[in-house]
Amino acid sequence: MKISEVLKDKRVTVSMEVFPPKTDANFETVEKAVDEITAMKPAFISCTYGAGGGTSAYTVRIAKRIGEAGVSSMAHLTCVSSARSEVKEQITRIKEAGIENILALRGDIPEGSDFPGPDNYAHASDLIGVIKEVYPEACIGGACYPEKHPEARDKREDIQNLKKKVDAGCEFLTTQMFFDNSIYYNYLYRMRDAGIMVPILAGIMPVTTKQQMKRSIELSGCSVPPRFKAMVDMFGDNPDAMRSVGILYASDQIVDLIANGITHIHIYTMNKPEIAKGILENLKDVI
Ligand code: FAD
Q: What angle do CA 170, 13, 71 make, to 5 degrees?
């Protein structure tokens, strides 16, 4: 099913995200985790894409498997470090696999590289244009950044660029992780003010280890409220306690979002079915 249809549901939707294996050797482990997450019947599951395309076939295989198990699936696709012909080939593969949804992404620019060159698509909005040519029936989503994309000069410029992406045909947006809901509410207000009216899925990352917290901040640049920082400082060296804290913090964020009328939640489950299960258990009387 197209995600644009899934999101018409007036009830709360909870979608989840998985990532593909890096090699054939760990395909089975990933497959098992994905199957367990699929069995929880989220509104849809998206599968990430290794920038540069090294794991592109796995993204399609995993997304296809999710669809065959009766859950709507979405394949991520990046463009900035791949040749235009490779990007087109991947869109065709996604189409032939019967995957109806694509998250159109630029991808990070590898440090020291000279991407984007003349044979690359420079922005997600350019990728949306080519998806529309190769696979016009696809439902296309995009990424957005409540604390602004790290390369954007300021929040205003970032939202203006985001508007170009939506005008190019992006039907919904999923946010980068955030740990302070007021940042999301403020962002939503500014997006609507800029005329961006598509659904904006709140991306929630359950942080269940101290190392993951460090990595998440490095990668996304998002801020950590003192309340959460205190929890990580206190429990970060105790894996069981930190896992519970991560599940509770993410659950608390989601309950607050729902209480404030937000209906589309996307959980970065990252191939950890036990974390997804823990959050759903906490939400069972709320959604
Ligand atoms: P864009 O929308 O192209 O924006 C990138 C920058 O360019 C921004 O600063 C923006 O303001 C600016 N910009 C955009 N359009 C224009 C324009 N027309 N003119 C001038 N400036 C412009 N990475 C992966 O490698 N694989 C994944 O599977 C993956 N999944 C993700 C899922 C989500 C929900 C999110 C939030 C991120 C994901 N990423 C993934 C990371 C993403 O690839 C990076 O954040 C990347 O740096 C930006 O991608 P984008 O699609 O947001 O880029």
A: 80
